[in-house]
Amino acid sequence: MTTKLFGQAVQRVEDDRLLRGNGQYVDDLMPGALHAAILRSPHAHARILGIDVDAVLDVDGVVAVYTHEDLDGAMAEPLPLLIPHPTLTHGRTQYALARDEINYVGEAIAMVVAVDRYVAEDAVGRIHVDYEVLPPVVGIENARDGELLVHDDVPGNRAARMEQEVGDAEAAIAAAPHRLSLDLEVERSACMPMEGRGTVARWDTDSHRMQVWTSTQTSSGVRAAVAAKLGLDLGQVDVITPDVGGGFGVKIVHPWPEELLVPMAARALGRPVKFIEDRREHFISSAHERGQVQHVDVGFDDDGRLLGLSVQFWHDNGAYTPYGLIVPIITSTQLLGPYKPANYKVVFDSLYTNTVIVTPYRGAGRPQGVYAMERTMDAIAAYLGKDRTVVRAANFIQPDEFPYDQGLLFQDGRPLIYDSGDFPASLEKLKALVGWDDFERIRDEARAEGRTVGIGLACYVEGTGVGPYEGGHVHIETSGKVKVSTGLTSQGQGHQTAFAQIVADELGVPFEDIEVVTGDTRRSPYSVGTFASRAAVMSGSAIALAARKTREKVLRIAADALETTPEDLEIVNGVVQVKGAPASRIELGTIAVLSNPLRYAFDEASKAATQFAVGDPTKPPVADDDEPGLEGKDFYSPLRSTFANGMHAVVVETDPDTAEITILRYAVVHDCGNLINPLIVEGQIHGGVAQGVGGALYERMAYNEHGQLENASFMDFLMPYVSEVPKHIEIDHIETPSPLNPLGLKGAGEAGVIPSAAVFASAIEDAEGFSITSMPISPSELFALRLHHEQKLQEGPHA
Fold this sequence. Notes:
The chain is α+β, with helices and mostly antiparallel strands. The chain has 3 domains: 32-134 and 197-276, Aldehyde oxidase/xanthine dehydrogenase, a/b hammerhead (Aldehyde Oxidoreductase, domain 3, Alpha-Beta Complex); 292-466 and 639-795, Aldehyde Oxidoreductase, domain 4; 468-636, Aldehyde Oxidoreductase, domain 4. Strands 3-5-1-12-9-10-11 form a 7-stranded mixed sheet, sandwiched between helices. Strands 7-15-14-13-8-29 form a 6-stranded mixed sheet, sandwiched between helices. Helix 6 crosses helix 7 and helix 9 (326-334) runs parallel beside helix 10 (366-384). It is globular, with a radius of gyration of 29 Å. GO terms for molecular function: caffeine oxidase activity; iron ion binding.
């Protein structure tokens, strides 16, 4: 029998090619293409009074120069606001090239196309722009006081205000036996994929067809945008996503200005054009995330059980809102985690600042929400003098309460209904994994050695598999090989392996006979994209359904050929055979031949499929409800998102002199439903934890009052190296299958990063004995907090 592969730790098939340097990224494509370089604003806020490109026109090797005046039609209009929302009353997007005002350092003003990147960059430096510099709005505090405006027509810099409430939170808090208030902050950060953004385009003047290769998380989205903005039929545009060196959310925005400008220039010039982002451009002109200021009011009883929870927060959305309110909506809803407050109210303002736009970054608003909720749980435990795990357990949704309706609307506009989970079991696993109940002994031993250690935990729930749909196509060729395609893209997640495992089990074919293609609109024109931990749930389910359709056809054709019934057949290692009589068999490749009743016999195998050789003469060769070929196609569209969950714990040591923070132990318990490939899931957790360490302890975007990003290079922007991430991550899984999809899957891609700020704040606070209210935290900030805490102790309680 064919070995079952679903759930097995199969080695990734992608790795051999990628590790040997045989990947094909955007910059590897189209040698000889013209190169584009972008002039970007040096000011955070300014009016453009004039642009002089005369000094560029005669530069040897320059082919074209574009400013907003050279754009026409839809290209001259603002970029699309991708996800409108009723509460986004003042949504604003930028132009592909700035028209008369710029609103952040790095905004695109002009594009030069030249024979190579060196000439293009030199030419960009010769463009003269006359600016009227305006005072910028930097930071949430300046944005919400409304004294200065980013956009003159947006009062108070407020893009949106949104409120959701279940019950009467304020009344419940006022009546509660105990009440607390917390003021919290999470600073800006950003993802740093190994490969920056990149686009290359070629216009075929004979067929009037545009081909675009781009480093994106949504090939179909880029396709639609290019067609709309360039006035092309959708069928005239092909978008192919080659290997992508990391996405993490920044490449889900579509279109970036360059993804339109490059195809536009390629069509105008009749030559391929390429743009490759450099590292400084990524810092100042891609996207950031995380920045929020939060206020929490909570009422609770003697057991720490939530009676009322009211949260208000202010979200920095940067200069524009191309991705709508997705990030703060996720914060406001995922904040609840595995808990069930009896009454909940959340209000947020999404504010404009003269800084880089904010769009989803791995975790996408969840780290901020988890931070607010878990800091609140820790504060309740400290107030009552209870163990932090006990307070959490008192508030858990219980296993017999699923599906659990939180009474809110999620990011997809569907009800926030948790489909499955077992939070008490996860907590018990985590406590055992990290040695929670034995930690006081470890703390005492460390204290005897003059060392300071602390332990923290954080719980989260993650909405995954967001709709509306994804598709899958499975095609068995006459060779017996299986070709699988899906429209969403891959950025290192192991799709080629995991999807092949699904098909191998569904069809009973050898794993090595399956090839998976993603992100190519020529193969899968309809797709949504790779984000929100949705690939396995959405495309995995669609591929499974397509494979089942293919299997049904295989057995039907084979039954006719073997003169039996489909129920009497099985597929073993790519061969259809009669159950209990394996000598009566037929190869999949032969069935593929039989599925296509050609008029012509090209070889011995196809002779059996000609109209003159086979078939019931009373029936048409291809039935009315059938089509030639051995393939299946299907789409999966869920009723609502499915919800993964997990819990992290960390043990840290804080240096008494330098306040450096060292990770001694890190543990994760994770529930993403049925595991397709545990090896890939654990790899996702490892990568997420590493990013989470960066976001909690190192990475931040340091803007000065002029809106200049002061650490826009790897010389100044701190990221954890292998020496800073945990040497070993202790991982355990709990599998509560989702009832919402055919494979019982829940997403896994973002889990590792979601609770990081909260879990490190919890552990550092436990070690130091004073509150941690702002993340990320550096040694110098921790040192300053120590001094402040010592000073308050010396002044006494009435100071």
